[in-house]
Amino acid sequence: MGTVELPNTEAAQSHMDAVYAGLKSAFAREPFPAERVRLQRLAALDRLLRENASAIEQAINYDFGHRSSHETRLLELFPCLEGIRHAKGQLRRWMRAERRPTGRWFHPGRSCLVPQPLGVVGIVAPWNYPIFLAAGPLICALAAGNRALLKMSEFTPRTGALFAELAARYFDHDLIAVVNGDAQVGQAFSALPFDHLLFTGSTAVGHHVMRAASGNLTPVTLELGGKSPAIVAPGYPLARAAERIAVGKAMNAGQTCIAPDYVLIPQGQEREFVAALGATIDAIYPQLATTPDYTHIINSRHFARLAGYVDEARAAGCETIALSSRMPQPDAATRRMPPLAVLNPPAGLALMRNEIFGPLLPVIGYQSLEQAIEFVTARPRPLALYYFDGDAGRIARVLRTTHAGGVTINDTIMHIAQDELPFGGVGASGMGSYHGKAGFDTFSALKPVFHQSRLNGLGLFKPPYGRLFERLVSLLMH
C-alpha cells in the first residue's frame, strides 16, 4: 500500500480513502511518537535519499528531457539532507514544552505550550523540484510526529513512481504513502479530511485546493508563487548584481518559484545591465546548446507558453536580447530555451501579468527608488524579493515598505536555504510557512496548558457572591 497508482475511477477514490483510513488508524494507536521514534523515521528518509541519489537523478532527468544532475544534487538532495540533519539536531528542543508567563493573579499556577502531532497530513508536491518539495515538508511532518500521504505531480511521472516505490521500501505502509495521478486525482486528494494539507504549486491551482479542503475545514499551507522582483539600487555595481541575478534566474532554466521574475534597474542603465547578464550566461554556460549543466523546459506545453510570451512581446514592439552568444535561439525539439532579456515591456503583456517560470527576464528602467518601490507595491505580493544595495538606510526603507514571502539582500534564492528561517508566501503568493522550527510548528498543535497549583485563590471567586467578592473584583479591575 505504500505505492498507490490511481486511475480516474470510483474504485481509485475508494482505494485512496482506504489508504488514508489506514494512516489515521495507525496514528490513533501512536498519537505521540517518542523522540527516539521520530529520529528513526528521519534517519530512514536520510537513507532513502542517500542510497538512491543516482536513481533519483536519473528519474528527474528523464521527466525533464534533460535536468542537470549537478542541479538535482545541489538544489534537491542537499537541502533535504541538510534539513534532516538540522531537524535531528534540534528535535529535542522543539518537542520540549515551552513555558509561558502566567497572569499575576493566577500564581503560583504555571502556563506552557505543548507541541502535539496533528495526525495525518497531506503534501501536494509540484513538478519543478519534485523531491525537494515532497521530502522537505515531509521532514517537518515526521519531526512533528505525524503520518503523511503525498501526491506527486503528473508532470514528473517517473520521479513520482520512483518516490512511491522508495517510500514503500523504507517506511511502513501506514506511516507514509504516495499517490500518483492526474489533476482529477489531485482534486480528490485535496478533499480528504487531512489534519493539515500543504500544497506547493501555482496560485490558480491553489484556489481549487483551498476550495476542496474547505469542505472538511482542513487547515492549509499554500506555497504559491508570483512575480518576484529584483531591484538594483542606484550606484550598486551592475556586474555584481547581474551575475547573481543571472545565476538565480538560470537555475533549473528559471523553473523556480522564487526565481527573479523581473528586474528594476536605474533608467538608462538597462543595456549595460543586460550586457553584464549576457557575460555571466556565457561564462557559466560556455557551450549552452550542448552543456549538461543547463536544464530543459519540463514539457511542450510550457515551452509553447514561454515562446508565446516572447512572440507577444515582439509583436508589441519590445526589444528582446539573447543572453547567450552560443545559443541565441531556442530548440523546440529538445525544449532547451536560452535565457532572454525583454526591455521595458508594457504592463499589459502576459509576460508582465503572469509568473514567467522560465528563462525570460524583463528588465525595466525606473527614475527613482520610490518609483521602483511603487511598481512593486502596486502588484500582488510576491513570494520573494531581491534588493541590491550597500546603503543600510535604503535597505531598511525597502524592507519596511514592501511585502514579500521572503527576502535576500545582495543575492538571489539564498533565503530558502536557511533552515532557521520560515519559508512561505504572503497574500497571493501563499499562506503559512514551513522549514525548520516553523515547519515543526505548522504540523503541530501548540496546545496551551495551564497547571493549577494546589494552593490557589479560586475559592474566593465562586458563588454565592458577597462583599468579599466585590472587594476582590474592585481590586482586580483597579
Short summary:
By secondary structure, the chain is α/β, with parallel strands linked by helices. It contains 16 helices and 19 strands. Helix 12 (350-353) links the parallel strand 12 and strand 13.
Describe this structure in words.
The chain is of the alpha/beta class. It is built from 16 helices and 19 strands. The protein has a seven-stranded mixed sheet with strand order 1-6-5-4-7-8-17, sandwiched between helices. A seven-stranded mixed sheet has the order 11-12-13-10-9-14-15, sandwiched between helices. Helix 2 (35-51) runs antiparallel to helix 5 (132-143), helix 3 crosses helix 4 (69-95) and helix 5 crosses helix 15 (436-442).
CA-CA gap between termini: 63 Å
Helix content: 40-55%
What class, by secondary structure content?
alpha/beta
Please tell me the overall pLDDT.
94
CATH architecture of the largest domain: 3-Layer(aba) Sandwich
At the first level of CATH, the class of the largest domain is Alpha Beta
Q: How many E strands?
A: 19
Biggest β-sheet, characterized? 7 strands, mixed
Apparent shape: globular
- CATH-wise, what's the superfamily of the largest domain? Aldehyde Dehydrogenase, Chain A, domain 1
Portion in beta strands:
15-25%
Strand order of the largest sheet: 1-6-5-4-7-8-17
Rg: 25 Å
What is the assembly state of the chains in this entry?
A: single chain
Give start-end ranges of low-pLDDT stretches.
Answer: none
Number of structural domains: 2
CATH topology of the largest domain: Aldehyde Dehydrogenase, Chain A, domain 1
Tally of contiguous helical segments? 16
